[in-house]
Amino acid sequence: MPRFVDRVVIHARAGNGGHGCASVHREKFKPLGGPDGGNGGRGGSVVLVVDPQVHTLLDFHFHPHVVAPSGKQGAGSNRDGAAGADLEVRVPDGTVVLDEQGRLLADLVGEGTRFDAATGGRGGLGNASLASRARKAPGFALLGEEGQTRDLTLELKTVADVGLVGFPSAGKSSLVSVISAAKPKIADYPFTTLTPNLGVVSAGDHTFTVADVPGLIPGASHGRGLGLDFLRHIERCAVLVHVVDCATMEPGRDPISDIDALEAELAAYVPTLQGDQTLGDLAERPRAVVLNKIDVPDAREMADFIRGEIAERYGWPVFEVSAVSRDGLRPLIFALWDMVAAYRAAQPVVAPRRPVIRPVAIDESGFTVSSDGDGGFVVRGTRPERWISQTDFGNDEAVGYLGDRLARLGVEDELLKLGARPGCAVTIGAVTFDWEPQTPAGVDITMTGRGTDIRIDQSDRIGAAERKIARRERRKPGSDDE
To answer: Where along this sequence does the record place binding of Mg(2+) (predicted)?
Structure first.
């Protein structure tokens, strides 16, 4: 049996950037070929794309993890790694994207609308790109950045022109089945309709869509029945139609009380999209009333008796129909089309949505240094945290390069101002290390072997050889220690 899923949580993970390559050009008769390591490729992004052929979020219900491919590592001979392809995920028209805190990120309406759900990581630079006057042949490369990981909530709001609302068993599904080609499940018990049904209705040369929303009851806006889960599907409807059961035998119910109860629920419902930019506020949508089941004699009498009062009280058009005998269907169809066309024409013209390009800010030099309360310090900032993730801490030269970058940014000066002492713990990102102020910015360093840094190798500890010589000196006759 097919299932309708209109709310899912997906785990989107973009691809990681490829690592840079540390390579030296080797060729006969060219002993000093220079660095030729290529850059790593960019990781693929996860992109949501509206596809009119997709009508439900069912696929994400069974496969919530969406992973984009990573970039490839760079290689020698200045060969850059291949970039990971963006993963385009097809979603239905009318999908709303929310973040972990429930904030609205995107409203995907219209074929081809795109949204970057997770951005791929940048590839690391190879040693050819890191060469400078001070480092003519770097023995290290930068690591690729990790791709963005996000947990996003997708909500589907059915895009329909007319929304049918009413109590359970009011005949909404029967009405949809006779005015369109849709074949929803119809039975003689409440809450037969568990998922919205969408039908396409022809009115002469024009067509419009009708959505059958599962039955509402008093308290639906607060979680009673099925209404809270499916009230979102009327947010995009241009016209709302009250389908009233004139043949109901339940005590305390009549057409006017049913309409008042449903209007109270519609007023109490707080939509996710306040003031939809294409249709306006929900309370201002045009309404119509359909008095259903007039094929029953008592229901016809009730409809004739109450029709004038409804029109006078609410000012909405009233139609008497029967889904069984099909009385009054044709005038209803053309009247609904006129209401839809008039309402659409009265709305302001919406400019077509264009891709929004958000370039990365050039000035990312901002950072903050704060005390962690235990004698250490925490450095926060876009560039320091990114540099930490790009550094191979198993390579002394890469660590020295990181120290130079932090010093040029002013991190060491700020640590000194706050009273940092050599050996105190400094945390940047996910890495904590013992700080040693030994890399002043702008000072040329003496280069040693590839992959090493003389400043990292420096130590005040006495080596084994020096201790052996000192012991021999102490054992000589006439020494001061004797």
So the answer is: 173, 193
The verdict on whether residue 170 carries a ligand-binding annotation is: yes
Q: What angle do CA 460, 464, 469 make, to 5 degrees?
A: 100
CA pair distance 125, 142, nearest whole angstrom: 5
Cα separation, 72 vs 18, whole angstroms: 5
Q: Whole-angstrom Cα distance, residue 457 to residue 475?
A: 31
pLDDT value at position 192? 47
Encoding tokens for residue 257?
Answer: 């009380």
d(CA 473, CA 481): 9
State the average pLDDT over residues 293-304: 84
Least confident among 77-91, 281-295, 368-382: 281-295
For 30-77, how does the pLDDT look when each residue is reduced to its tens digit (9 = 90+)?
777 789 999 999 999 999 998 888 877 878 888 999 999 999 999 998
pTM, full prediction:
0.66
What residue type is assigned to position 425 of the chain? A
192 labelled as ligand-binding? yes
167 annotated among ligand-binding-site residues? yes
Q: Please indicate, yes or no, whether residues 319 and 385 belong to a single structural domain of this protein.
A: no
Last residue of a domain, one of 315, 346, 377: 346
Confirm or deny that 109 is annotated as ligand binding: no
Is 226 annotated as ligand-binding?
Answer: no
Structural domains of the chain, count: 3
Which of the listed residues 156, 175, 201 is the one where a domain comes to its end? 156
Asked whether the predicted pLDDT for residue 375 surpasses 70, the reply is yes
Give, for 421, the enclosing helix (H) or strand (E): none
Q: Is 194 annotated as a binding residue?
A: yes
166 is in an annotated binding site: yes
Q: Is residue 45 part of an annotated ligand binding site?
A: no
Known binding residue 214? Answer is yes
pLDDT per residue as tens digits for the range 428-444: 988 888 887 765 544 55
Which residues, in sequence order, are CB contacts of 240 under 8 Å at separation 6+? Answer: 162, 163, 165, 234, 266, 285, 286, 287, 288
C-alpha 290/C-alpha 322 separation (Å) is 10
Task: Say if residue 134 carries a ligand binding annotation.
Answer: no
